[in-house]
């Protein structure tokens, strides 16, 4: 356990050392600020491959999110809690149902939520149904969220995970928010969420001149 705490601390120090070198711009911030001003429930939705910078900028906001029950998930969960998140433990493959219910309860209690809607193992850019259950049971607005950077490192992972190199110019993007009507079929709703996250991701990639590798679409 001490080793896990040490690793989480080192990861945290590295992440925020990197953050201090980045130049940040925001695209369509009004999409977020208008929802926050209205006090409505929000579900930030993003692809797993564009996770790292949104996690940095929303630290200490009391947001609820999910970390897997793996050893790596334990490190991530400890990092999240240290930086002001509520971290529930589960995944689409193990423990996802109870963890999702915890998230729903937190949103009903007034917290915002963040979901990597194709994580933690993919398929890449395919929205899993958990976000739909959360949105329907809480009335949360879907807020597509992402980022891009001018000097990206894409890992050779299932999601081509993007890490900004030091001193990158980064663009944080917020897509047009929307709710899920009760009468909308599940397949249509999942497709709408995926298309919205794709759209804002393409927009921030254009703003930074990035041409990402698969599984991302060409810009």
Structural class: alpha/beta
Largest sheet: 5 strands, mixed
| Count of the separate structural domains | 1
Q: Determine the CATH topology.
A: Glycerol-3-phosphate (1)-acyltransferase
Estimate the helix proportion, in percent.
40-55%
Overall CATH class? Alpha Beta
Count all strands and give the number: 9
Summed up, the helix count is 7
Low-confidence stretches: none
- Overall geometry comes to globular
Q: Write down the overall mean pLDDT.
A: 90
Tell me the strand percentage band: 15-25%
CATH superfamily (homologous) name: Glycerol-3-phosphate (1)-acyltransferase
What can you tell me about this protein's structure?
The strands form three sheets. Strands 1-9-6-2-5 form a five-stranded mixed β-sheet. The chain has a two-stranded parallel ribbon with strand order 3-4. A two-stranded antiparallel sheet has the order 7-8. It has one domain: Glycerol-3-phosphate (1)-acyltransferase. The N and C termini lie far apart (44 Å). With 219 residues, the chain is α/β, with parallel strands linked by helices. A hairpin with a 7-residue loop joins β7 and β8 (162-164). It is built from seven helices and nine strands, in the order αβαβαβαβαβαββββα.
What is this structure, in a nutshell?
41% of the residues lie in helices and 20% in strands. It has 219 residues and is of the alpha/beta class.
